[in-house]
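Title: [Solved] Acetyl esterase/lipase 3D structure

Original question kept below for reference.
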Amino acid sequence: MRKLVGFFIVVLSFLEPVVAQEISYKTIENINYYPKALQQSDTYLASQARLDIYYPEDKKDVPVIIWFHGGGLTGGSKEIPQALKNKGYCIVGVGYRLSPKVKASVCIEDATAAIAWTFKNIEAYNGDSKNIFVSGHSAGGYLALMSIMDKSRLAKYDINANDVAGLIPFSGHTITHFTIRAERGIPGEQPIVDAYAPLYFVRNDAPPILLITGDRELEMLGRYEENAYFYRMMKVAGQQHIKQYEMQGYGHNMTHPAYPLLLRFVAENSVKSEQ
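Solution (posted by the thread starter after getting help):
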């Protein structure tokens, strides 16, 4: 576990690799990641289950960052964070259906489908399917964790979750999400660990993980502590490639100072192409 002060984050920002300015980027918006038959049968799915892709036009086989937006599984919309642009990577911003129009568990199904689509299609956008990193903030961090920790979800698409190059949730639930608990009439202060909790799927063979939360005294509910427990149980299970950072002085909305950590993690964990 590490505490990072604001000064260190600023220094990290200046130490990021400089990417040549001549690289040109393109954005493709509103790509449906479910089959047409499903889109035609469900108008809400067709409108929400879409993704945007931002990628370098003249550079192939670049690492990919899949980003899930936050919003408590009840709000928000797909986004490509400005801080991740112009860094030489392919960024996938994912939209998904929201509660209460669907059960919150459907959000996880959508997130998994988007990751599967990315594995199977990202090379057409100069991304490297061997270097896919999954990230997101708050509810998005939870979706990133659930989609990968529960290996059975991607297995339905004939994809091994361990083929993900890395998992970087920002302030994500590791217990059962509070919106799922609310659907059952359970208050947010009552923690539960069941099949909708990343903690339920602790294992030693997961991809490299970087857990980032805000300051334990400023975070939402016990977000730091549940991530710390996830970290500890993963270590006890034998996972060697996991770290946790506490962003000292920052609350739940700690994305801006955390982006440099995400970018450094991607740079350090990308598998070099054999080409």
